[in-house]
Amino acid sequence: MFPSPDPTQLLLGHLPDTTERQFKDARNRLGALVTWLENTGGDVLQPNLDAYLWYLLQDRKLAPATAKAHLYSIRARYKTLQQEGVIREHLQARYREVPDRTEAVLAVAEALRYLEKALDFSLEDLKPKRTPDDYLRLTAEQIFSLLHKPDPHTHSGRRDRAVLALLFTAGLRKTELVRLQVKDLHFWIDDDELALHVPKCRACVERLVPYEDLIWGLEWVDIWLQAAEIDEGYVFRGFYRKRQRQDETRKMRDSLSPNAVERILANYPLEIDGDQVAVNPMDLRRAYARVLYEARLPLDEILYRLGLKDSNTLLNYIGTANDSLRVPAGEPIFAYLAARTALE
C-alpha cells in the first residue's frame, strides 16, 4: 500500500569507512538481514528483530555470541540512518499520500517509536528455547573436535577440557557437575567397577554412573586436579580475573557456578554447515544418552544413569533411532563406542 525503500540500497549503500574486516563483517551481517526481509516480506523500515533473532538462533543455528554480533551491527546501522534523518525521510515519503496530515504525522512518529523500541534490546541473558526437533545431535566426530578445542597446556584449558569430558562421559546436568567433590570421583560398585557418585541436591538425582570404557573422562579430570593441586572439595573451580597474573598462577574461586559452565562451552563453538554453533551442557547430556542407546544398554539402565524417570524424556534425548549405528551383535558393549571416540 505504501512505498518502501529498497532494503539493499538502504542498509548496504554508503556504509561508513571502517577497517576492511569491520566493513566485511557489517556487509555480511546486513546482507543476511536483507535476504531474510526479502524472503519473509518484512518491512525494512519496521524490522521485526525479535523474529530475526529467533531465525538466527533456531534456523541458522548460530551461536548466541554470533547472533549478538549480527544484532549489534544491525542496530549500529539503523542508529546511523536515524541520526542522518534517512529513516524519517522514508517514513514521511511513505505517508505523504495520507489525506489527513495530522494522521500522517502521528503515523511517522509511531513508526519511529516502534523502531526505537526494536533497537533497544539486551542480549545478556540470551537462552533460546529449543524443541526436540531443534536439538543439536552431535556426531562422534563433532564430540571429538569439541573435546580437543581447549588448550591442555593452561590451567583454564585443562579445566575446560575436564568439564567437557565429564559432561559427555557421565551425562551430567550442569548443576550436578558443579556440585561434584573430589571424593565423588572414585566410587566402587561391588568392589570391582569404578563409578562416579552424583550427590543428591535440589536439582540433582543421586546415583552411581559407571565409567567403563569412557574412563578417559576421569583421566582428564585427574590431570586437571593434579595440575591445580586440588585434592579435596569442589572438583571444578572458577578463576578470579587478575590480568597481572600468569595463567598458571591465577587465583581460583571455591567453586564453579552453573552459569559459568554455559559460558565455558560458549567459548568453544563448533563449525556446523558453515556456521559457528555453541554447544550447551544439555547437548552433551543428550549425546551421552544416544551413546548408551547405541551401546545397546536397556532403556531402564539408561534412565538410571541419567537420573531420569520419564521414558518419553529419554526418547527425546535419543532422537530418531538409527540401528546401523548400534553396537554390532557380539561386540563388547562399550569397546565399539571407545573405538569411535578414542582420544589420545
DSSP strand tally: 5
Give the fraction of residues assigned to helices.
40-55%
| Low-pLDDT windows of residues | 243-247, 339-344
The SSE order reads HHHHHHHHHEEEHHEEHHHH
- Estimated radius of gyration: 25 Å
State mean pLDDT (0 to 100 scale).
81
Count the DSSP helices.
15
CATH class of the largest domain: Mainly Alpha
Largest sheet: 3 strands, antiparallel
CATH architecture of the largest domain: Orthogonal Bundle
Describe this protein's structure:
The protein is mainly alpha-helical and 344 residues long. The N and C termini lie far apart (64 Å). It contains 15 helices and five strands. A hairpin with an 8-residue loop joins strand 2 and strand 3 (207-210). The strands form two sheets. It has a three-stranded antiparallel β-sheet. It is elongated, with a radius of gyration of 25 Å. The chain has two domains: 7-119, no CATH class; 132-340, Intergrase catalytic core (hpI Integrase, Chain A, Orthogonal Bundle), CATH 1.10.443. It has helices at residues 7-12, 20-40, 49-59, 64-83, 86-94, 101-119, 140-147, 155-170, 174-178, 216-228, 258-266, 281-294, 299-306, 311-318, 335-340, and strands spanning 187-189, 193-198, 207-210, 270-272, 275-277. The longest helix is centred in the N-terminal third of the chain and has 21 residues, at 20-40.
